[in-house]
Design goal:
The protein has about 230 residues and is α+β, with helices and mostly antiparallel strands. It is built from five helices and four strands; from the N terminus they run H-E-E-E-E-H-H-H-H. It has three domains: about 55 residues, no CATH class; about 35 residues; about 130 residues, no CATH class. Strands 2-1-3-4 form a four-stranded antiparallel sheet, with no helix packed on it. A hairpin with a 5-residue loop joins strand 1 and strand 2. Helix 3 packs antiparallel against helix 4 and helix 4 runs antiparallel to helix 5.
Length: about 230
Amino acid sequence: MRLFFFLLVLMPMMTSAELYRYRNETGQQVVGQQIPAALVKNGYEILSSDGLKVLEVVPPALTEEELARARLNEQHIQEMKEREERQKKEDAILLRLYSSPEDVIVTRDGKLKELDNRIESAQSRLQSLQAEKEKFLVTVADIERTGGTVTSSATEKLAFYDNRIKKAEKAIENLSSEKTEMVLSFGKEYERMRVLFGLKHEHPSDSSGESSGSNQLTQQLDKEESS
């Protein structure tokens, strides 16, 4: 009697056991209750106990090359997400700074005017130094013509002028580079604001003759400098 009850309990467990379908070393399809460990990586199917229904498909393990591609793809997706997140933050800053694309132009003009004043001041300082040097050179030349001796202090003063002139020229160069970078930066902000406001993207090839935002601002700057 005990054996009978034991069999009654055991039979559902035996009949509910899952089966596995896989291919052996020779490529033949095999159905069994176990899979050799060495063949698990090739993939297999989990079947119902009667073998008529596929419960789950376990794909083959990825090769090293496939794993490398998967990692690269995952990295690419992550980088895209990070770029999108950065763009959202940058857009939020732009929308706080400017009320419209035209506001970018107004702000740019104000900044450029300040920078132009600094450049003009640096150029004026350079011209003043050059004039002082020329005047001093005339004095030194007069001393030499009259047979006098040019002292070491005079040589040091010439070196002083040369050093100050070099620094002034470098300052003007840096300010000019800053101006170019500023125009390009405002151009990008202007173009992005047009996108955010749903306005038509400006291309150099547009029939209207308009150039892109940054090129348009650069061309305007060139006209201002040439005038």
